TrEMBL record:
Protein name: Phosphatase NudJ
Needed co-factor(s): Mg(2+)
Class of this enzyme: hydrolase
EC number: 3.6.1.-
Quaternary structure annotation from Swiss-Prot or TrEMBL: Monomer.
Length: 165
């Protein structure tokens, strides 16, 4: 039985290419060190573009300017069965943007605690190490970017709604 208040986790990710290489973060996860695009959760009151700008800055110390939406991805991770029975797992809805950075870390800006370092990798280098990817979406987003998938930033509309009456 599904909980009545179920909702997916909304996340954002940034694809940044420079000279055929992609900006990635190496981060601590429950499964060990993994590679990911700069990414994270949408926070209360943010638009998706505000969230991806914030996450990229927090994880890379670089200012990110989104230019297009690459795609929207839904992933469900099952949780292992426990003594209480099967677990529902968690669903993520990921909005991936491409754009540019200033390629210089902001002076005095530290990376998020879980981020070990930033790295630049070619698509081939990334493709050669899938066991190091945080999720299969890491490569999927790069492949979609390389295939030319782009949607205008206003493809996703944000509407503020006042209190219920």
């Amino acid at each position: 039985m599904k909980p009545e208040n179920w909702a997916p986790h909304v996340t954002v990710a940034a694809v940044v290419e420079r000279d055929g290489r992609f900006l990635l973060v190496e981060e601590h996860t429950a499964a060990g060190l993994r590679l990911n695009q700069p990414a994270g959760h949408l926070e209360v009151g943010e638009t998706l573009t505000q969230a991806v700008i914030r996450e990229a800055l927090e994880e890379t110390a670089q200012t990110f300017e989104p230019t297009a939406l690459v795609g929207v991805y839904m992933t469900h991770f099952s949780r292992p069965e426990t003594v209480d029975g099967p677990q529902d797992g968690v669903t993520y809805l990921r909005f991936t943007y491409c754009g540019t950075t200033d390629h210089r870390p902001a002076e005095g800006r530290a990376l998020d605690a879980d981020i070990v370092r930033t790295v630049w990798m070619s698509a081939d280098e990334l493709r050669a190490c899938p066991e190091r990817h945080r999720t299969p979406l890491v490569m999927q987003c790069v492949d979609d970017y390389l295939a030319g998938r782009r949607f205008p930033l206003d493809f996703v509309q944000t509407h503020s709604v006042g209190p219920s009456r």
